Amino acid sequence: MRLLSTSLIMILCTIPIFAKGQYPEVQIMTWGYEMQWLQKKQTTQAQTKDWNLSPFLESSEVKKQRYLDRSSGLGFMAGVKGSNLSDSVRWDLDFHFNYKENTNSTDLLFGKNNYLMLGYQNLYFGVGRREFLYKETSFRSSFDGAEGLFFEMKPMKNCLIQVAVWDRYRGFPIKEKEMFRDLFREDKSEIKLNSHHRRHAFGFSYGEYYSLHFGTEFIELGTLGRHTKEIQKDVIDRGADGDHFLNFVLGTKLNFEFIEIHGNLLATKGTDRTLSKESTTKGSIPIRGEAIELGFVFLFSNWKIGTSSFLPDREERTTSNQIVRDGYIHTGTHIGSTYFFSQILFLFPSQSLQNDGLKKENSLYAGRSYAYFSESFLSVFFNDFELKLTGAYFLPYKSKGESDGKIQFKREFFESFFFAEVNLEIKLSVADGSELGLGVGQIYTNLSNSFEGNIGFFYGKVKF
């Protein structure tokens, strides 16, 4: 209810602006899909006992069937999108009502930006949802931003400073990554939280063709730490037991005539206060981690090709699997763009703070496991058509045994199995912004008792 109330206030604030003749466009979109999971027998010896291959592979009765799961459905989305970037008043409106047949529910979804800003000279104060532009990455659908109060300043050309005064953090869900979410959730009701995630952030970016960006954020987790055994006295007295962490990003982007180069250094530092017996220190687990991102995009007249890689560290563990310290924590949307990894399975390649809290779980569905993750794409443009081929690769770190907690590059520190996904999509775009597309996707693994997931989908979007 609080989110819905805030959203309605943001929408109503823009009504006086529309009265001046600046109207957003109306968008209507529909899509359909059919998905199937097949049992596969392979000659490889790759196995896992530490991973939960949910939502269907743990059942011995189901494993006797060729089709582990089959489903299909339709969806419908309608909303408005528009923006105005004048000197004194700026607004960006992007919200849609989304109906899914599989959940029989209607949700209110937002795009990356949905705000109202008032400015004087080069300083702007805003309320609503605002993308963090200083967290630029080569992963094309990785985004983060504030939902609350913020301000921005442009002290000079090609320099932007962003400050999130108060952000009600919930993972920054965006409508572009919600089409195939919740296909496996048995409980279709909204996830209820008993806590809060309060974030404050600062960042800047400078440059145009050769740019530098830096940012830091402080997040208070309330009572949703990685481990369930919270310090109840502090929770009762203050509503939280002090779980918190700082995130840092330092990166650059280099634009040349035929190539873009992206690089980011990421870090986390904080404390998870807990009474869990998994910790080697009484009452808390230190959080201290790093990760690296590197990507290349090659640009040509009618096609482009790119690749991106993400490699975090992992938690430091003793020989008895007790945790000495936690590793890197991701914030924002899933970094990938393929449909199984980023939406259907929602499998993250590191510990991540989302709407259901901060956790680490070796699970195929809604898992958050430290892993090497890479994604490559090829896009070809001809007339009004775009043909796009995308591949992604997920290789987890070993989840048992002693660990020094450092970033590793040798294959021996990773599991013998992997998950991989391929998407193929063709899209027709016309001059007024309407679109028509269809695609197929497949996910597979080299596990000996294995599976294969396939999906086919279509969508259409019109604008008025």
Plain-language structure description:
The chain is mostly beta strands. It is built from five helices and 24 strands. The protein has helices at residues 2-13, 15-18, 60-63, 232-238, 339-344, and strands at residues 25-41, 67-85, 89-100, 105-110, 114-120, 123-131, 145-153, 159-168, 198-206, 210-222, 243-255, 259-273, 284-299, 303-312, 316-317, 323-325, 329-330, 351-354, 357-359, 371-382, 385-396, 419-429, 435-445, 449-463. The longest helix has 12 residues, at 2-13. Mean pLDDT is 83; it is low at 1-6, 8-21, 58-63, 186-194 and 223-240.
Mean pLDDT: 83
The biggest sheet, with number of strands, parallel, antiparallel or mixed sense and barrel status, is:
18 strands, antiparallel, barrel
| Radius of gyration, CA atoms, in whole angstroms | 22 Å
Structural class: mainly beta
Helix content, binned percent? under 10%
Instruction: Output the helix-strand order.
Output: HHEHEEEEEEEEEHEEEEEEEHEEEEEEE
Please count the helical segments.
Answer: 5
Query: What percent strand?
Result: over 45%
